[in-house]
What we know:
heterodimer, A: 610 residues, alpha/beta, 4-stranded parallel sheet, B: 167 residues, alpha+beta, 7 helices
Amino acid sequence: MSKIKIKINNREYEVAPNLTILEACREAAIDIPTLCYMKEINAIGSCRICLVEVKNARSMPAACVQPISEGMEIFTNTPAVQKSRKANLELILSDHNKDCLSCIRNQTCELQKMSADLGVSDENRFKGKMNEFELEDNHSSIVRDNSKCIRCRRCIAACAELQEISVIGAINRGFDTSVGCAFEAGLKDVPCIACGQCIVACPVGALYEKDETEAVFKALADPDIHVAVCAAPSIRVTLGECFGGKPGEFVEGKLAAVLKRLGFDGVYDMDFTADLTVMEEAKELVERLTKNGKLSDGKLSDEKIPDEKISDGPLPLITSCSPGWVKYCEHYFPEFIANLSTCKSPQQMFGAIYKTHFAKKLGLDPKNIFFVSVIPCTAKKFEATREGQSAVGDGIRDVDAAITTRELARMIKKYGINFDKLPDEKFDSLIETGTGAGVIFGTSGGVMEASLRTAAYLLGGHLLGGSSADKIDFEEVRGDEGIKKASYQIGDKTINVAVASGTANAKKLLNSIKSGETNVDFVEIMACPGGCVNGGGQPVQPIRVRNFENLWERRAESLYKDDQNKEIRKSHESPLIKAVYEEFLGEPGSPIAHQILHTHYAPRGKDIKV
Amino acid sequence: MKKIKTTAGFMGTSEQKEKLIAMIAEHKDIKGSIMPILQKAQEIYGYLPLEVQQIISDETGVSMSEIYGIVTFYSQFVLNPKGEIAISVCMGTACYVKGAKDILDRISANIGIKPGETSKDGRYSLDATRCIGACGLAPVFLVNEDVYGRIEKPEDVDDILKKYTES
């Protein structure tokens, strides 16, 4: 495409013709401030912060939506532009609850930073009537404080465009406009999946996770309680961002070190139960393939596939480690509930096996154990409270508190630990640290790949034409596409797999499975685009970073690198996994494994409760 | 102005539902048809309660939050039906300075619903309206088609309302 000539601040540039003013200026190293704009999903030009002057134009266009044209002369920083931006910002501030000091987004708020950058000198310049809202904090995972909301609609775009769920929207008109659910129902009364993508889209403190750090601090302070913690795979590539690190920086050693300094009695790596999930899920896959006639040609060795306890579920088997996805399935695709793997997620498996097997080994009463998980996900908070997530029974939850990456960062800051100065340490060893297979659970395609590594083994090398029980890298299911598909050979049969991330892609994939257009045997779905590395509980990056950098690709690369570096990269080869099956569980899919590590699901309907 | 959520009980008939679904089927494949669908749905039911919006959402695939957003944005859509006895109090300038607010409050207390609401049984509805052009009679209120003007004191509304409540 031929380039066109434009002028920005009197300097000439040659740029691609199909850009907006905002994009063209960025290529010229000029950052125009934005509030409402989200690349591809929310270009609505409504906040009026990105105004620029264009020669001979009637008024100041919004740079985020105005396309450039040949010979256009743009001025990004004239006194008139500065004055307009500042006035618009002050008008936004006039209906914004400015209790910044006690706000959860203090120092990470985009509105606060912009006020500083644009030189707001009187935040009460347009003081007048303000909307009044009640704090909404009865949802399992998400708190809404509309007194902070600036109606930029980024959360609405995340919910409607990114996830295609759309349980929130703009209500009423003019000054009365607010963001909420239909009929002003609470978030808990609509089919919200708790993914938290609205939270990481919010520029201010209007949406945030339900804080559970107080409960953790309280447990840590109680000498009679054994407080154990496990950190999910993706935390090691995102926690650093809360302390000034680059997206994707690998901080596993500091993560282990900091959890120990916070005073946890046991500091573990969730890789272990990611591996355990692989064992159970790969077994479930092999059982379902057998049951559904996919493996009936006798080409598989008998010892590898026992015919008892065959799982009744249909194909395709669909992964269940993403609680946002599971809730989505229960609300929107109840016809696929039978396809969901009955395996608990790694978070729940850890709590479950810790409070049963390891409690016995450590001589602990499960009643006195407080089990904490550090997760990238707000839906995990919901999952921890679900029915069927108590291996011990007696109302003792598998997981007592699920805290996000952001909450952990807040705990560290409160404790006054200098994260940068921490040495690299190792997680406590229940025997051995996790495998590479466990690590890549944190990204879209990772659960599929980890399961295939072990399924290949369980199938005795018949996967991939009979010679590749050792296959490790399943490149086909990696990468940043929303839906990925691949086929693998088993004997003379083909096993088809698919991976989807983000519920918009999940919807597309499920509909094409339903229509018969896609024929698959094994499906991995994660609720968040890109998987856990881009979860709703991850560090919030300002929109100028989000719009122009693929955050989750950076973070995922870091996980794949760690997988490459691990000595053990297959779940079934982990000494810890071997030991727990030997000492406790017997074999994958055994009755005891089912009792402790598996769960059930139920349809939830789509209706709004008012 | 904020819309008052539906207060009347839903009394839709199966004929209305059939009509609604047939109407949606006719329109739903046309781009941007949600506005005419909502308008016609309101013609069928007289208002757009949750139950009706839910059917529209299910049939068109447009999310509830978007439909509700449209309904609360445009003043032509209402969330409450008119009551059998529909009372409107003029809040135009002339009526307002002559005490329309007190009259509105008196009626509200009398029939037990707030402005913008409809009683659960669908019998009464109460609205605060803009100038109805009868400033010479200020303060004015309407009960269905009947006009009552020059109300001297709020208590006077009691006798007027009695005519309707006792019939």
